[in-house]
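The record is passed on directly below:
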Amino acid sequence: MYGLPPEIDVSFLVHREVEQVCIGLHQVQIHFDDNVSISIEGRFKYTDRTGRVFEWQDTPSQAAGIVDSLGLVVSAVTPEPDGTLTLVFSDGANLTIFDDDEQYEAYQISKPGTTIVV
């Protein structure tokens, strides 16, 4: 539970297109264009454009709904000081990543030359 310091700029996520989603036993990776990615080891909630909610914490099958984000473009990103990060996609879907485990990292955001660990 590291949080997101206010000086961290995540605006580079806006206008990124989801090119690949990888689901593993303990991690979900979202790869965007321009060599940008988010690796999630903690809890997240993905709400698709129809309002269906997919939450992931323990099992890979819970993360399956996030595959619907393929080809979508991030239209807005909202970082919170507590570490919660919300991405809104071009079709109205949204992804909220939580930083709610005090023992482990929740996610990492990477772009060339920079990795942000939360």
The mean pLDDT is 93. The CA atoms of residues 81 and 108 lie 15 Å apart. The chain has one domain: 11-117. Strands lie at 18-23, 28-32, 36-40, 44-47, 53-56, 74-79, 85-89, 94-97, 107-111, 114-117.
